[in-house]
Specification:
With about 350 residues, the chain is α+β, with helices and mostly antiparallel strands. The chain has a single domain, classed as Anthranilate synthase (4-Layer Sandwich). Helices cover about 25% and strands about 35% of the residues. The protein contains seven helices and 17 strands. The strands form two sheets. The protein has a nine-stranded antiparallel sheet, with helices on both faces. Helix 2 crosses helix 7 (about 320-335).
Length: about 350
């Protein structure tokens, strides 16, 4: 089962398999799922294997007696001092490796497990689809990976025929007293590496240009953003560009192999679908719309597991990085807040 809303749209699209096998079938419009581990094979689901329906937001909300309520519980207070100490210790270890020349940047993630009461799924879905209209919002029930949901702000690749665009989204700041602090050298440097690595990753598959550096606002957070666009070379495709890009330095680090090695050795959990990518590919229509799976959670045995990460460079502050993960978890934390035990 898959329910999703594309950025800027007001319709929920639902795909139901009703027990039919989900085989890799690149026919017509397909939904692609790539876990963070790039050695795990990409899955491709053809829409022809599903029954499909659309629901208008207004119709969905009309099924509920009252509009969505604001988050009633401060979920972030459930995070323990030990969780904070553990993440900050990992950041310090990363800073030592950066100082010794092992890598220039690494993206360190953490997960937070929260127990839930009975979930009212209609209310959950309303809260999800109204969380951020500029994001790709989804609920996915996968036979192997389980139930995942998210509201991701980052496009990995979008293409039509031989034209493509992607984005470098790195560097984070959050609103303080209705204002924005100045960007620091740390954020600018982190962003430059992401742009550089994206261009290097796809130079064999596409001719690229870059746009101006801008701010990408998401609620009370902003990221630095540079659009990258151009022409796909003959024999390649939007999906191939995505596979070259993944994992980007915005979710892994730079250089990729060194940063990923650090992640595997120091993070205490399997990222699974977090920081992978998902979305749509139509090889016949030559269109691609894929998103990095950020601001997401996994449902498991009466709990949800929230995921968030941040880029560590030589100027990173462990306390700041801990707060950043808290801020990023708040997107889905607010969505599930009414159901927290």
């Amino acid at each position: 089962m898959l329910c999703y809303v594309l950025p800027g749209e007001d319709r929920i699209n639902c795909w139901f398999s009703f027990g039919r096998p989900l085989r890799n079938d690149p026919t017509g419009m397909t939904f692609c799922i790539q876990p963070y581990d790039r050695d795990t094979p990409l899955e491709i689901w053809s829409e022809s294997n599903f029954e499909r329906h659309q629901i208008d937001f207004k119709e969905l909300i009309s099924l509920k007696n009252m509009p969505p309520q604001s988050a009633p519980k401060p979920w972030w207070e459930l995070c323990s001092l030990e969780e904070g100490r553990s993440h900050k210790s990992m950041v310090k270890t990363a800073l030592n490796s950066i100082d010794s020349g092992v890598m220039d940047k690494v993206v360190l993630a953490r997960t937070k497990s929260i127990g839930l009461q009975q979930v009212h799924w209609l209310e959950f879905l309303i809260r999800l689809v109204t969380a951020d209209p500029r994001s790709f919002r989804y609920v996915l029930n996968h036979p192997d990976w389980g139930v995942w949901s998210g509201a991701t702000p980052e496009t990995l690749i979008q293409s039509e025929n031989d034209q493509f665009n992607t984005m470098a989204l790195a560097g984070t700041r959050w609103q303080i007293d209705q204002g924005w602090p100045e960007w620091t050298d740390k954020e600018y440097e982190e962003h430059r590496w992401v742009v550089q690595e994206i261009l290097q990753s796809i130079e064999s598959e596409a001719h690229c240009e870059t746009g101006d550096l801008t701010n990408h606002e998401l609620g009370q957070m902003q990221h630095l953003r540079t659009d990258i666009f151009g022409v796909i070379k003959p024999g390649s495709s939007g999906l191939q560009l995505a596979q070259c890009l993944h994992p980007t330095p915005a979710v892994c680090g730079f250089p990729r192999e060194s940063a990923n090695g650090f992640i595997q050795n120091h993070e205490s959990f399997d990222r699974e679908l977090y920081a992978g990518f998902l979305g749509f590919w139509n090889p016949e229509g030559k269109t691609t719309q894929l998103f990095v799976n950020l601001r997401c959670l996994k449902w498991s045995n009466g709990h949800v597991h929230l995921f968030a990460g941040g880029g560590i460079t030589r100027d990173s502050d462990p306390e700041h990085e801990w707060i950043e993960t808290q801020r990023k978890m708040s997107t889905m934390g607010h969505v599930i807040a009414p159901f927290i035990e």
